[in-house]
Write a structure and sequence with these properties.
Rna Polymerase Sigma Factor, Chain: A; rod-shaped; 9 helices; mainly alpha
Length: about 190
């Protein structure tokens, strides 16, 4: 699309033109959807993010400038929303079951791409576990990797269940924060 047409669209959008907004949507919605789908692997998430991208565009229409690349701006908004979606996914309680998920689903499926993701995930997890205290790491491994309950861990280590919960909670918080840097490893979980 020619630069002059973009400039005219931006001018009309700033003035609140629904027609200009619809034109932008018609031009970019499918491209954004494809971009988002590649990263999220979820049609429903991709649809939601496309809609949210255009909502953000509309709500900030007065701030649009004629300088810069309109397409890049839209894709940047979408990219940030993808990252937000991954962060929300990682912070869900289900994240605590990721080891079991990977062990039961990914390796059993034997898909080479998923095994590569699994191997990379395990590598990042190992690196991330180095940030934990010795007690946190040991309790995390007993809980998530050995499958022991909090009560069993407390009995085995001679500590209270509350201490186990505290260490496990701190470990999971640290791991979530650290692993959120590697969102691409969770694209197939959504």
């Amino acid at each position: 699309m020619k630069k002059t047409i973009h400039i005219e669209l931006i001018r009309k959008l700033r003035k609140g033109s629904h027609e200009a907004f619809n034109t932008c949507y018609d031009i970019y919605a499918d491209r954004l959807y494809g971009f988002i789908l590649v990263h999220t692997k979820s049609p429903s998430v991709a649809e939601d993010i496309v809609q949210e991208t255009f909502l953000k565009l509309w709500s900030s229409k007065e701030k649009l400038t004629e300088e810069g690349d309109f397409k890049s701006m839209l894709f940047t908004i979408a990219g940030n929303l993808i990252i937000d979606a991954f962060r929300k996914q990682i912070n869900k309680p289900e994240f605590e079951d990721y080891i079991k998920y990977f062990d039961n689903e990914i390796v059993a499926d034997n898909s080479s791409e998923e095994i590569i993701y699994y191997d990379e995930f395990l590598e990042k997890l190992t690196l991330s576990k180095r940030l934990l205290t010795e007690g946190q790491r040991h309790i995390f491994e007993l809980s998530r990797e050995s499958g022991l309950s909090n009560k069993e861990i407390a009995s085995k280590l001679g500590i209270t269940e509350q201490t186990v919960k505290n260490h496990l909670s701190a470990a999971l918080k640290t791991l979530r924060t650290e692993l959120s840097k590697y969102n691409y490893l969770f694209t197939f979980i959504i």
